[in-house]
Description:
The chain is of the alpha+beta class. It folds into two domains: 1-35; 38-138, Glutaredoxin (3-Layer(aba) Sandwich). It is built from five helices and four strands. Strand 3 (109-113) and strand 4 form a beta hairpin. The longest helix has 34 residues, at 2-35.
Amino acid sequence: MVERAVVLAVAAVAVAATVILARWWSRRGLSGLRTAPAEGLWTALGASPDGRPSLVVFSTPSCTACRTAQHPAIETIEATYGPALRVLHVDLSRQPAAAAAFRVLTAPSTALLTRDGRLGSFNHGFAPADRLSAQLSALGASPASPR
């Protein structure tokens, strides 16, 4: 009985250490992206900043969460912000350089770029429309006015 408790305790510590290490590594990578020159990110995307905040959506053709959850959230954001927001879709299977430049670990992922092209926010995994909207507001973007 004591042996089982020791094994469980060691396993719990190992899992906790792995989670802490993964979070640290992810934050370290994102801070490097925030301080890196924006030109490298835009070169990997094959585009250039145009003075609007940009939402970069990373997905793959086989990603079910991309089609069923992330793309509807992106459509909501596009409808809300209209032409004040630039949306770039990146197929990770066709643009591996973009995946490497942004250090994408999973699909779906999203990146929000400031008006001058620097990284503002990054979401590994699904990001709901309300989170994306809050991140865009933090970048100074305003929803389009209804007609």
